[in-house]
Amino acid sequence: MTITTVKSFGAVERPQARPTTLLQQSWVLVRRNFSHIRRQPEMLMDVTIQPVMFVLLFAYVFGGSIQTNTGNYREWLLPGIMGQTMAFASFIVALGLTADLEKGIIDRFRSLPISPNAVLVGRSIAALFHSSIGILVMAMTGLLIGWRIHSSIGEAVLGFLVLVLFGFSMIWLGILVGSSMRSVEAVNGVMFTTMFPITFLANTFAPTDRMVPWLRTIAEWNPISALVQAMRLLWGNDIPVAGSAWPLRHAVPVTIGWSVLLVAIFAPLAIRAYRRRTTD
Amino acid sequence: MAEVVPELSVHGVGVRSYGDRMPQPPAIEAINLVKHFGDKVAVDDVSFVVPQGTVLGLLGPNGAGKTTVVRMMTTLSRPTSGTARVAGHDVITEPDQVRRSMGSTGQAATVDELLTGRQNLRMIGQLYGLTTRDVKRIADELLERFSLTDAAGKIVKEYSGGMRRRLDLAASLVAVPPVLFLDEPTTGLDPRSRLELWEVLRELVKDGTTLLLTTQYLEEADRLADEIVVIDRGAVIAAGTPLQLKDSSGQAALVITVSRAEDLASAADLLRAHVNEVFVDSSARRLTAPATGLSDITRIAGVFDASTIEIDDLGLQRPSLDDVFLALTGHRAEDRIADDAASTDDAGVTT
Asked: How many CA atoms within 13 Å lie on the side-chain side of A244?
């Protein structure tokens, strides 16, 4: 490979650059993420093979010994796995952001006449798409093993909307972690040791009522539990129980409340961490 | 620490006669740039001016503050005090206009490894807001120009170091910017790729681009730059054309190589009659003496011509920029690489 015959750029006219909106800039970066996935489809394993494996493991290995109100564990399980998959959107954002920050590419973006937020918005939209693929795969797997939605279309859609709203709060958590960590390995370490237990310490895979009281309280107030219960109730995968904990009895508004609260906490911290990381 | 040579003062850099043309505003101006990182003073009051269509070499050892200067000028880092203007725009108050007027390439590769070369260039064109037609045309032209057409569809991960560097440079040219900043563009390249890149840079400058490049290679500054600003420990210690810098430090030397080793002693005696000091290098059959200019050559050439001593070569050797650097800083340019490799500036050199 040589460039001994250098072609002159000659009198190249400067191309006309039109001003672009934040959304246009972000979309270019979303498409960049799609290209990454096309190039490395194994990047989707975290929202395909991994949750399917979980579904199968819990449905067939542990399911037999877990008692639920409805007696239909597979239906009960599906919203749990979907909630977990969406919580891991934070993981996806954090990994992608740290990978960019670690490399020089972030300097390239920052030296272009684009909004500094385009990188964040692009990452977030891409992560929502990424997680949505997971939700789709979960739904298909669920339908195959007997999961059904028993409610009206409106309630069914509301269930998915609540899920995406919660995902939005998780994205801010991801931006915070991604901006604070110095390497992809660090993100992996931190997220595995926190998000995994947090998504298990809930009603995701097993009812909370047989946990020791203090643990049960934590699990019931875990935002993941409210989210999962909201989906179960909206889709008719569980029946409301009079004596259950307050956040679970009002699961839909509580989930919306949690999501707003988490955004209110994580968004300013995340923006501050990102700014700090990208200014010197 | 050497003082700034008065007649080569910073403000003298780049003052050129434009004849009867309107004086153009400088393409790049650094105005008392200062940058502190905590207690550490990375850049200490750096000023210089780069006229349009010229090349400024920012020369200094690793850790001197070159990268920090460039990062402030390309809006990536905010000056603690002072400012800079690129194409007439202030980096602090008009960062967006600065970004529209310049292209830059840092030391770490700033391209996306998982995209192809073509995708990388197109993405940047789209982010600049170029029309779809321009995006495609310019990406292809640049790929062609940097001999990357064959590799255009391959992902960057599979590129060699030289190819990556070229793509990186191409990426900084997508918007055909009038001003270009390159931070150690040839670090990590093999000598052949380095020569090729120099050729590309000369072409760009010929087409009217103003170039600021940092380098720790004296030869590179010597070969490419119209003006050189030498910085060490964050401060400008000298500035001028390569020739001025060489003239300012140390004397030129007269170097004579005799044909036969047995003539060496008599040649040294002969030379001693005309100059104050003669150094003898017997293994190279070479005599070296301080010289003041070309007149010395003709005088000494006449002396040897009249003698029976045969000589292979007689010439005037100017001090290299390396000598200049040593004279100015008291250390060689590449001495501090090992100590400072981990410092903020110039860290993350990739190959």
From this structure: 21
Nearest to B114 among A28, A40, A113 (CB): A40
The amino acid present at A59, given as its one-letter code, is: A
Q: For chain B, which residues score pLDDT lower than 50? A: 1-20, 335-351
Out of B110, B127, B200, name the one closest to residue A107 (CB): B110
pLDDT at position A12 is: 57
Q: Which helix (H) or strand (E) holds A140?
A: helix A117-145
Q: What is this model's ipTM?
A: 0.84
Indicate the SS3 state at residue A88. coil
Q: Which amino acid is at B11?
A: H
Q: What is the mean pLDDT of residues A201-213?
A: 90
pLDDT in tens, B312-349: 888 877 776 667 777 776 666 554 443 443 344 443 33
Note the pLDDT tens digit of each residue in A7-59: 444 445 678 888 899 999 999 999 999 999 999 888 888 888 988 998 999 88
Distance CA(B199)–CA(B204), nearest Å, equals 9
HSE value, Cβ hemisphere, 13 Å, CA-based, for A252: 13
For residue A6, the chain B residues in CB contact (below 8 A) are 145, 196, 199-200, 203
Average pLDDT over residues A202-209: 90
Task: Please tell me the distance from the alpha carbon of residue A240 to that of residue A136, in angstroms, as a whole number.
Answer: 26
Strand boundaries in chain B, DSSP class E: 28-37, 40-50, 55-59, 81-86, 89-90, 102-105, 179-183, 210-215, 227-232, 235-240, 252-258, 279-281, 286-291, 311-317
Residue contacts between A and B (CB atoms, under 8 Å): 135
Instruction: Give buried/exposed letters for B95-110 (b at 16+ CB in 10 A, else e).
Output: bebbbbbbbbbbbbbb
Contact B75 A110 (CB under 8 A): yes
What is the pLDDT at residue B9?
36
Burial of A242 by CB count in 10 Å (0-12 exposed, 13-18 middle, 19+ buried)? exposed
Rounded Cα distance between B212 and B57, Å, is 6
Q: Which of B89, B128, B346 to mutate to test the interface with A (most CBs of A within 10 A)?
A: B128
Q: Is the pLDDT of residue A61 over 80?
A: yes
CA distance B348 to B351: 10
Q: By the 8 A CB rule, do B318 and B250 touch?
A: no
Query: Among residues of chain A, what percentage have pLDDT more than 90?
Result: 65
Q: Are B333 and B325 in contact (CB under 8 A)?
A: yes
Q: How far is CA B89 from CA A133, B95, B101, B147, in A?
A: 45, 8, 9, 33
Contact A179, A94 (CB under 8 A): no
Beta strands in B38-78 (DSSP E): 40-50, 55-59
